[in-house]
Amino acid sequence: MKDSIYKKQNDDFLLLCLMAQRSEYSNAKSIVFRKSLATVGCCIASVVGAVYGKELLTAFISLVNVVVFVLNKHSDQKINALKLHATSIQQYVDVTLFSSVIGNQPYVWGDVPTKTELAESVSQVQGKDSSAVWNWYNDYSSLPGPLQVFYCQRENVRWNFRLYNSFLKLINGISVVVVFLLLTVMFARNISLIRFVIILSWAIPIFESFWSTCKEIENSMNQMKRLDSFCKQLEVAIEKDNSFPTEKDLIDLQSMIRKRRETCYLIPDWFYNLTKDKYQSQEDSIADKISQK
Prior knowledge:
The chain contains eight helices and no strands.
């Protein structure tokens, strides 16, 4: 039987790596959630304090806001560190699989961590159930090695584009609801113009938080649009000329995927789990059609 990514991806060490990268992404997402919760919570508390005119409460909340601001700056560094390390683990998995079916050396794909460097992360998930990361990529084993690699990469790009597009729509909807609720509370209290300006100044961080989130997601989607465009160019060549993607094409595409992973907005796990079955079903159907060509 010829080399197959589908078979090799369930190697014990690679499964541990996939569990480790998922764990580190989840840790980073937890920090993002706590950071967002603290920011929104402080802003809402500030609005309430301004509405009811309690100077001592407003002063206390102002102090808490300063503390939260400082902690958020520190948490950003931690989030980025976890994201970069999780990306490097995923890169190790991808490169190990891709090199095995096209016969090149892992170093040609760029910087990849060694097993020794991954030992600490892997040890933290040792003994845990790995069933959630089995068959990470669909089955393209009927295809030549270069096409197996390309369609695994294509699957990743397509899945993430759908995920981010759906989450952006959700965030836009939440933004509208939050603005409506804030305006309703402010006008229902029949507050003065001065107090309205004070409340608005406190509410700005909420708007800024949502705006920043939307911009991050849009930036991630712009990266994926470029990835998608590159993938389509390769697909046209595959179907029109009946050719394989070159090694350089695959390495360039993987480099773009890695860059997106390093800089992308982290979609919450609950949303990923909510949409996972739907997108997995779509990818299974696409993979079946590709394998039958």
